[in-house]
Amino acid sequence: MRRFLLTTCLALSLAACNSNSSGIGTGATDTGAASEPAQEQQGITADSMASHDPGPGQAPDPAAADDQPRPIMKVQVVLERLGFAPGVIDGQMGLSTHNALRGLQQANDLPQSGELDDQTQTLLSRWSQIAATRVVTILADFAAGPFAPLPKDPVEQAKLPSLGYASLDEKLAERFHTTPEVLHALNPAPHGSPPVAFAAGQKIRVPNVGNDAISAVGKQDEDWLRTLASLGVGTDQPPLDRIVVSRSKGTLSGYDTAGKLVALFTVTTGSSHDPLPLGNWKIYGIDHNPKFHYNPDLFWDVSDKKPKVLLPPGPNGPVGVVWIDLSKEHYGIHGTPEPQTIGRSQSHGCVRLTNWDVARLAQMVSTKTKVEFVA
Question: pTM (2 decimals)?
């Protein structure tokens, strides 16, 4: 009975969290060529911006080759395809990339240094055919918008049909798991000119994110499939038997039924005001493109005099594109409108990921997946 009620009432329970501030297999298993565009089914397909990489031993297409060496971005691209998410792909050895390397090392019985040591580089060399970047043409439908800055007041946000992207730059950045700043660095304007204004029909260089093939077989929610395509997240994801969120490491680790680590994400896990609730929990449901019941009574840093409102769905909503409802009341695992803050800022007790990472995770877990929150 609870699960039936959840289907109709989940949006009204999302009230405790808000932001404060390639076909490559999992582990070391090589399954062949990187993700290719899916065939159209039910009108939803991976678009022409999807990855299409050479298989092992095959030479990259010279037209799609990197225009210059980007070794760290290449490592990030391969790590993400293997299931060990580096967060924002930016070509920098930051917190999330070190975490992803530790995940790869753990899954392959290597010393967990979190560094690009010799053994790790030897392992990663199996995917040397995967480029760091690729060139895509911005699709007219993708660039159509609408785009508009969001008002800060939740009351004004509640009047909108959705909490969408403020600009094409922001939408492109989420599609390729990076930031507008990185996209502009990859596509510099001539010296002394203003930054390039991205537009439909334009060819741009982007991080070569993969695992983005879309299959609509057995999936009836076309809005969710469009969200996945918009985020560059494919539908073929490994099922998880257990997930473990570590407060001290700032990670969410996913294990299969054999106990093997097959996925790792850097996360934000609460604050001194709303600490992560340690213990074992259940998943009661997974809500795609959720609405958000904004209740100031549940936020220590918001005046109780503020009105309660129901916010529309959208990637710039307080919980992003996914809410994974937990048996701990008011707590869940969700996305964020600010991917660059993951692992660095605080949350209101919940577990927060980038929108593209939580969209991937949402396809790995079910109500049967065990959840552990540890110190």
Answer: 0.85
| Residue that the structure tokens 């009661």 belong to | 284
Question: Quick one: DSSP state of residue 191?
Answer: T
pLDDT band at 349 (very low <50, low <70, confident <90, very high): low
Query: Tens digit of pLDDT for each residue in 146-174?
Result: 999 999 999 999 999 999 999 999 999 99
Residues in the chain: 375
H helices of 36-165, in order, are 71-82, 95-107, 118-124, 140-143, 154-157
Which DSSP helix (H) or strand (E) runs through 311? strand 309-311
Sign of CA dihedral 297, 299, 305, 307: negative
Tens digit of pLDDT for each residue in 355-370?
Answer: 999 999 999 999 999 9
- Helix, strand or coil, per DSSP, at residue 180: helix
Taking Cα atoms as reference points, which of 266, 276, 259 lies closest to residue 361?
A: 266
**Could you give the 3-state DSSP secondary structure of residue 278?**
coil
Cα separation of 372 and 183, whole Å?
Answer: 36
Q: What is the pLDDT of residues 231-284, one digit of tens each?
A: 999 999 999 999 999 999 999 999 999 999 999 999 998 666 678 899 999 999
> Do strands 242-246 and 370-374 pair parallel, antiparallel, or not at all (unpaired)?
parallel
Contact 102, 112 (CB under 8 A): yes
Report the Cα 27 to chain-centroid distance in Å. Answer: 19
Q: Give the residues across from 347 on adjacent strands.
A: 19
Question: Which are the contacts of 66, defined by CB distance < 8 A and separation ≥ 6?
Answer: 74, 131, 132, 133
CA distance 270 to 327: 17
Categorise residue 343: left if φ over 0, alpha if ψ from -120 to 50, beta otherwise.
Answer: left
